Amino acid sequence: MSSVYLRGGGCALLIDMSGTVPAVIHWGRDLGDVAGIPLGVVNPVPHSLYDAPVVTELVPQASTGWRGRPALIGHRPGGTDFSPRFVTADYSQDGGEATIRLLAADEGLELRVTMSMSSGGLLRVRHELTNNSRDGYVLDGLNVVLPVGPAATEVLDLTGRWSREQHPQRHPLNQGTWLREYRHGRTGHDSSVLTMVGTSGFSNRRGEVWATHFGYSGNRSTFVEKTPAAPAMLGSGQLFSPGELELAPGASYRTPWLYAAYSTDGIDGLSAAFHEWIRERPTHPRTPRPVVLNTWEAVYFNHDLDVLRELARAAGRLGVERFVLDDGWFKNRRSDHAGLGDWTVDADVWPAGLDPLIHEVLDQGMEFGLWVEPEMINEDSDVIREHPDWISGPGHRTPVEWRHQQVIDLVNPDAWQHVFSQLDALLSNHRISYLKWDQNRDLVEEGHDGTPSSHRQVEASYRLFDALKRAHPQVEIESCSSGGARVDLGILERTDRVWTSDCNDALERQTIQRWTQALLPPELVGTHVGPTQSHTTGRTHSLSFRAITAIFGHFGIEWDIRGLDDAQSAELQAAVALYKQHRSLLHSGVAVHADLSDDAYLLQGVVSRDRREALYSFVCVRSARDELPGRVPLPGLDPHSRYRVAVVFPTGAMPYEQRNIIPWTVDSVVGSGAFLGEAGLPMPILLPEQGILVHVIEVADSPRGAVDGD
Ligand code: GLA
Questions:
Q1: Active site includes 135?
Q2: How far is Cα 438 from Cα 327, in angstroms, rounded to an integer?
Q3: 424 is a catalytic site residue
Q4: Are 297 and 531 in contact (CB under 8 A)?
Q5: List 438, 442, 488, 505, catalytic entry
């Protein structure tokens, strides 16, 4: 049969291969057996258009009549071969994987499309272009696109800034192009982890939705394009600086992966496909995610061995498992004005090196982690005093400073080797289990030897991560970039978690984490209990609200906990214990989010894969419209099983508790999954910035016959 037909998780991608070019017939719900699929059915030819049927090409090209954004943009150095005509050369499919090879014989170009569909329905597509000519080929862009179904009428994506990443924005899907261009040299604070289009009003649990993510950490564009002649297309491609990429004869260029998911069950269905695929990766962390203590908001640059030892002991008493020494430990790093690039321990502040602290941390039964920012330099550093030409830039001047720092030109092999050797020595000479790898500025005007290098710089950074991982496979790496400016599946091929945001305000975090976790499972998303008064917003939050928010992720603490009073210590200890008790559920289960009519309330949960238990958080994020939250559904449970409900946090009294006497009867209610998921339970009246955690477990005599833990 002349088709490529990838199926998985109730989804399908059907490509008609019976014509001269691959035509995408369908990406959406599974279509069943291939025998029922007619191929070669052509579109009518509209008035005042090319005299050929319109084809929704997998690789759109002007030479077949596509008037939207072409997949490939490029030319020979003199401008020739600007519009190639690709036709299918051959293709093959093996289960969920397929390859299609296209040739533009007249232009001497070859394009290989690689695709796969996971058993959970996650689709991956990438292109590889090879220059088969004897002349160079200037590549200006290569987009990977997928058409969505006709029912999509709305676009939802995310945007942000420092300390406010991944906030949703929604608008109608009209004709035209919704184009997001990220020119940060890094992924970017405004980067949307998903671009979603769907049926009118699609929500957490309802509607047909299509979504893509581009797995790349540098300049790129993502777009939704609707032309009059074709379905809407979702696409992405790298953005190159002028003249940045010229393919020599015989050379190839491969795009990053475009990841794509389709769901009939709203956004939760998309996340399920992404989370399942991400968890199946061989590199996915499989050990319990340790409770972290990060020193940044506790001491900032004020490194003092006695203070940090005391902090380590306080952390040990609370049950912390990983102690991360943040910025400020290396040579001359007394502020953010100096030191980046000299990755040796500051002898003034640390006369006996880092070992006394490391030993204290290990004695407390914790792992030791360290902050680094390897791609950056301060001009006030030994390395730049010695090698001023190692600053990446246009060559004749240095780029604008940002946080008093510049980018080290990792495309320069000597600079790359210098950074690698310093980090390698650091890891070889200390018992370091974890690196918080930061990147605190946009990389604009990236250049090497006077030529643009933004793409090569990202590749060189990736090589640095990869080389260090190879040399120190036991070391976990966190991707931090002034908070969440490098959150993507490209960096996550070589790192083990992301720092979600520099904002530890639990209220802001409710939104930032919810949307970061639309793509990433909670175990990859760093979530810390910050100080009582948030350092980035000035808001004050109860410890319970901060802890409830941090438990739905890779939990940690970023707060000077040396001075906690007894009540605070007890509550934080309870939160740590609760996280440890439930982390295997939180880090393996299915993420769910209820659709509630009053947006003052948020209900999220994680349901175990066997649906025998679940943990939900119910929080209030602003003053409520209604007098009561009403009945709140607990989605995702087995409709046929019966469950017992327990409020497990906070353990102490809440303000205004007297008004909540009756609603607390949700505690120990037994109900079926159908009842809890559809009718729901009357939840307590919460004040803004309060929350509760609800644990639900299948009862022993449940119709499904479970006996777990009742
Ligand atoms: C960035 C990070 C913070 C902290 C500081 C240190 O802003 O996002 O978490 O590590 O750098 O300078």
A1: no
A2: 9
A3: no
A4: yes
A5: 438
Which superfamily does 3-280 belong to? alpha-galactosidase from lactobacil brevis (2.70.98.60)
pTM score over 0.90: yes
Does the pLDDT at position 323 exceed 80? yes
Q: Which ligand 1 atom minimizes the distance to the CA of 326?
A: 10
Index of the ligand 1 atom closest to the CA of residue 480: 8
Q: How many CB atoms lie within 10 A of CB 672?
A: 18
Domain boundaries, the chain: 3-280, 321-499, 591-698
Nearest CA to ligand 1 atom 11: 482
Q: Is 371 in the pocket of ligand 1 (CB under 6 A)?
A: yes
Of 162, 163, 165, 296, best ligand 1 pocket probe by most atoms within 8 Å of the beta carbon: 296
More confident residue, 34 or 482: 482
Nearest protein Cα to ligand 1, atom 1: 482
Q: Is 369 in the pocket of ligand 1 (CB under 6 A)?
A: no
Quick one: three-class SS letters along 656-705? CHHHHCCHHHHCCCEEEHHHHHHHCEECCCCCCCEEEEEEEEECCCCCCC
Mean pLDDT: which of 63-67, 673-677, 684-688 is highest? 673-677
Ligand 1 pocket, 499 CB below 6 A?
yes
* Ligand 1 atom at minimal distance to the Cα of residue 371: 10
Residue 677 and residue 683 in contact, taking contact as beta carbons nearer than 8 Å: no
Indicate the fold that domain 321-499 takes in CATH.
TIM Barrel (3.20.20)
Ligand 1 center to 415 CA (angstroms): 23
pLDDT of the residue at 34: 86
Q: Is 57 in the pocket of ligand 1 (CB under 6 A)?
A: no
Does the pLDDT value for residue 378 go beyond 80? yes
Q: Please tell me the residue having the least CA distance from ligand 1 atom 4.
A: 296
Convert 471-491 to b/e letters by CB count within 10 Å (16 or more is b).
ebeebbbbbbbbbbbbbbbbb
Residues 6+ apart with CB under 8 A from 156: 168, 169, 170, 196, 197, 198, 202
Looking at residue 708, what is its pLDDT? 43
pLDDT in tens, 268-301: 999 999 999 999 999 999 999 999 999 999 999 9
Cβ of 329 closer than 6 Å to ligand 1, yes or no, is no
Q: Hey, which CATH number is domain 591-698, 1.20.1250.20, 2.60.40.1180, 2.130.10.10, 3.30.200.20?
A: 2.60.40.1180
